[in-house]
Design a protein that fits this description.
four-stranded antiparallel sheet, Pdz3 Domain, 20% strand
Length: 446
């Protein structure tokens, strides 16, 4: 089973990465072709080459190292650091012979295509599956274990979440959104004993969350409402009925399903249930032969508990929702990067490499099927776009900085300077990759 899971994780990761890299490099390729530049190579993956063919002036190939790709444009000093073509006079079909603005378009086209891909994915998901809303007003409270991160951060059982970061929230799922969790200072508003209380998360909140990811989940809000009962079970003999809501078990609060099931596992012999049935409280008595003897109850369908709303979008509404989510995700990633660079969160705890990314993609697919796969692919597409525009030589952002310098000074940086900058950028990327891989391995060993 572990081997199968590992194989699935690798395949999902490669599939997502192939899509992202193909779209990114396609952006560079189409922009270069549109301006009459010659494209010598279009590769998905790095050497050694697995398969390839040549059509026109371009060699198309797939490499065995699926961690990126490249488009080699004639007359461009790229990550290959090949300067041979720069020793002759610029030719009309070369990158270096084109105006600065055209070169800027070619450099940023990959990033633009990644952003467009994310928007299209979010639009497609919105159009095909709509949106599921859990109204905050229908969630009466949450169950908080004393040993949990939520308890340590100030949450208590029966707290009713009403707002996050100063904004009241209509959809319960918004409390757990990346944009909410990545704010510079995360604050939750809860109703406790009829009063509104603000809980401010500590500065190392994301670090704690990475180490103890249980925090607040939708499962914590599930009330102990009975959906069905096994015939002849202890619950059936005690007189429990579908639709009952358990309030107490042996005099202890049991209003939430997690709370109720924990107590069931420690209950042996006779038990007393206090349930709410059609607006009235009813006391029931029963018998369990052993603690491991199942009570024989099953939870009610979540849609009946929370008055879940399922919204379907028209084409226009899906476009608005998809573009909006693209913007929100972009803001979230920028917030996360800012926290990394300013030291608000630990780089070691929050920077992941290919192993971490593959694991996240697998989890998303396991929990939500193809919708989860496409959502995480869109998220990674935006992440790839933003990371590529960091002003580091070798990345698109580094090339763009050189072009900005040329546009302002009317003077191109020397080849020698660009070569040295590319080398420095290359070493920086290698160091980051080694660090990220180390983090992944430490997490696996931990």
């Amino acid at each position: 089973m572990e081997i199968l899971s590992l194989g699935q994780t690798i395949l999902i990761f490669i599939a997502a990465l192939f899509i992202l890299v193909f779209v990114h490099e396609l952006g560079h390729f189409l922009a270069a072709k549109a301006f009459g530049m010659r494209v010598e190579k279009f590769s998905i993956g790095f050497p050694p080459k697995i398969i390839g063919f040549t059509r026109g002036d371009t060699e198309y190939s797939i490499g065995a190292t699926p961690l990126g790709g490249f488009v080699k444009v004639s007359g461009m000093l790229d990550e290959s650091m090949d300067t041979d073509s720069l020793e002759t006079e610029p030719q009309p079909w070369e990158y270096r012979s084109r105006p600065v603005w055209q070169r800027m378009v070619v450099i940023t086209a990959g990033v633009i295509f990644n952003m467009i891909l994310a928007a299209f994915i979010y639009i497609g998901v919105a159009l095909s599956s709509g949106e599921t809303i859990i109204p905050t007003s229908s969630v009466e409270g949450i169950y908080v274990e004393e040993a949990s991160l939520a308890y340590d951060l100030g949450f208590r059982t029966d707290d009713q979440l009403v707002g996050v970061n100063g904004q009241d929230v209509e959809d319960f799922q918004a409390f757990l959104s990346p944009s909410a969790l990545s704010a510079s200072q995360v604050r939750y508003d809860v109703l406790r004993d009829g009063e509104r209380v603000t809980l401010t998360m500590p500065s190392d909140f994301l670090d704690q969350l990475s180490e103890r990811p249980e925090f607040i989940t939708a499962e914590m809000a599930l009330p102990s409402m009975i959906g069905s009962i096994s015939p002849g079970s202890p619950a059936d003999k005690a007189g429990l009925q579908p639709g009952d809501r358990v309030l107490e078990l042996n005099g202890n609060p049991a209003r939430y399903w997690a709370q109720f099931t924990q107590q069931i596992l420690s209950t042996e012999g006779s038990f007393v249930l206090l349930v709410e049935r059609e607006g009235e409280q009813v006391e029931l008595q029963g018998e369990k032969s052993t603690a491991s003897d199942p009570l024989g109850v099953y939870i009610m369908d979540v849609a009946q508990m929370f008055d879940i709303e399922r919204r379907q979008y028209s084409a226009g509404e899906a476009i608005v929702a998809g573009v909006g989510l693209t913007g929100e995700t972009t803001t979230t990633i920028f917030q996360g990067l800012r926290q990394l660079f300013t030291g608000q969160v630990s780089v070691r705890n929050n920077l992941g490499g290919p192993i971490a990314i593959a694991s996240i993609a697998k989890q998303a697919t396991d929990s939500a099927g193809w919708i989860g796969f496409w959502n995480i692919t869109a998220f990674l597409s935006i992440t790839l776009a933003i990371m590529n525009m960091l002003p580091i030589p070798v990345l698109d952002g580094g090339h763009f900085v050189f072009l900005l310098y040329e546009a302002v000074t009317r003077k191109e940086p020397t080849v020698d300077f660009r070569m040295r900058a590319q080398q420095v950028g290359f070493y920086i990327l290698i160091a980051v990759m080694i660090f990220a891989f180390s983090n992944d391995i430490l997490r696996l060993l931990g």
